[in-house]
Specification:
Distance between the termini: 32 Å
Number of domains: 2
Structural class: alpha/beta
Number of strands: 15
Shape: globular
Strand content: 15-25%
Strand order of the largest sheet: 4-10-9-8-7-5-6
Helix content: 25-40%
Radius of gyration: 21 Å
Oligomer: single chain
Length: about 400
């Protein structure tokens, strides 16, 4: 019997000792630089998932790596029991980026969403005068905001939701992209304090709402006196060609929820940003996190914000995104039934007769491209924003070849 390969050994050990909460592609990655990664056997792949947009700036961006190395030699953790110079810098930079008065740093995206929900409820009680225990939040069909017990309580994804009850109450679901349904929900429930939505639904397959929808949501919220919470964890920080996806409609939500790329693909860093009239409801002891706002994460996050300030990555997302869209359009007669894109972010719907999204990703893997399927025959593409024009050509060629493989 032949000896197992290095890849097989990694897969076997992982499957034996780690819980099976993911179904990874059969590749074991060991290193990365820019838009490319290498596996344990030295094979190179174009990374077109980019950690679900956590790696917008690529693997090991020189500026981010330098900041991380420098901070490792200074101070990595204090907890919020004390002040730190890096948190002060980060908070000032992030509030300038968002145009808000204050921010509250956390770690994971789900923690930031939970923070926004807590803030909205407390604001509803203290500012809006909602009776204690009645605060209600409107969410969208097809949403994905994380996997905590409260968040999956309002998920309509059966795999994420089922058999984790009892569920947290206080949520009303409306169709995504339907402003009239939102108006009706607000008219029917006087205890609504906020509307939570993704400007673009990433996990759903890069689902883009109708033009003008975000502006309508903002206006509906303003008239009703409720908070608009924009989950920009995947869509934000240059992925769509603007700093925030809300920028495409000149909308500024009441609360930004940020994460993923905020940590530069190096550390977990998330945050909510809002004006003092909203975030001011958080008082000492009412919310916290041991690692939230730690000096290492804040140093990296501050450099991420500096990179965004150049406009280079927003422009790259627009340019490479236009190149990708042109390539996808050419593939439509060859197995794509539809595609959606905004900046360098795309959701592709395959002809179901050709196979599943997983099958497509396996064919792409064989051609040296990493991608991830989502529901049914849909896959998502999100190359790092440092990807070159040549890299996008490689991706398009791999897609064409994979579709040909499936059609055989």
């Amino acid at each position: 019997m032949p000896s197992p390969t290095a890849t097989e050994e990694v897969i076997s050990s992982t499957e034996r000792w780690a819980a099976h909460n993911y179904h990874p592609m059969p590749v074991a990655l060991a290193s990365g630089e820019g838009a490319w990664v290498s596996d344990v056997e030295g094979r190179r792949y174009l990374d077109c998932l980019a950690g679900y947009s956590a790696l917008n700036f690529g693997h090991g961006h020189p500026a981010l790596r330098a900041v991380a190395h420098a901070q490792l030699d200074r101070l990595t953790l204090t907890s919020r029991a004390f002040y730190s110079d890096r948190l002060a810098e980060f908070a000032e930079a992030l509030t300038a980026l968002t145009g808000k008065d204050m921010c509250l740093p956390m770690n994971s995206g789900a923690e930031a969403v939970e923070t926004a929900l807590k803030v909205a409820r407390k604001w509803g009680y203290q500012v809006k005068g909602i009776p204690e225990g009645a605060a209600t939040i409107v969410v969208m069909e097809g949403n994905f905001h994380g996997r905590t017990t409260t968040i999956i309580s309002f998920s309509d994804d059966k795999v994420a939701h089922d058999q984790y009850g009892p569920y947290t109450p206080g949520f009303v679901t409306v169709p995504y992209g339907d402003a009239d349904a939102l108006r009706s929900a607000l008219a029917e429930n006087e205890f609504i304090v906020a509307v939570l939505l993704e400007p673009i639904q990433g996990e759903g397959g890069v689902v883009i709402p109708p033009a003008g929808y975000l502006r309508e949501v903002a206006e509906v919220c303003r008239v009703a006196g409720v908070l608009m919470i924009a989950d920009e964890i995947q869509s934000g920080l240059a992925r769509t060609g603007e700093t925030f996806a809300c920028d495409h409609e000149d909308v500024v939500p009441d609360i930004y929820v940020l994460g993923k790329a905020l940590g530069g693909g190096i550390v977990a860093l998330s945050a909510v940003a809002a004006d003092e009239s909203i975030l001011g409801v958080i008082t000492p002891g009412s919310h916290g996190s041991t690692f939230g706002g730690n000096p290492l994460a804040c140093a990296i996050g501050t450099e991420v914000i500096a990179l965004l300030g150049t406009g280079e990555f927003q422009a790259a997302a627009r340019e490479r995104g236009a190149q990708l869209a042109a390539g996808l359009e050419a593939l439509r007669p060859g197995g794509l039934t539809a595609y959606r894109h905004r900046g360098l972010w795309a959701g592709l719907d395959l002809d179901p007769s050709l196979g599943s999204g997983r099958a497509m990703c396996e064919r792409l893997l064989a051609r040296g491209v990493l991608a991830k399927d989502t529901h049914g025959s849909t896959i998502r593409l999100a190359p790092p924003l440092v990807a070159s024009a040549e890299d996008i050509d490689i991706l398009i060629a791999a897609l064409a070849g994979a579709l040909t493989d499936l059609a055989r």
